[in-house]
Amino acid sequence: MTRLAFLMLLYAVMLWPARYAFYGLFAEWYYPQIIYETGVWTIYLLLVTLSVSPVLTLLNRVGQGRSLGRWLLQNRRHFGLGSFIHASLHVMHYTIETNSASWMLIEAISIEYFVAWIAFVILALLAVTSNSYFARRLGRRWKKLHIWIYPAVLLSLAHWYFFDYTEERFVLLGGCFIALKLAHLGLRRLPRRAAHG
Question: Where do the TM regions start and end (predicted)?
Answer without folding.
Answer: 41-59, 79-96, 116-135, 147-163, 169-187
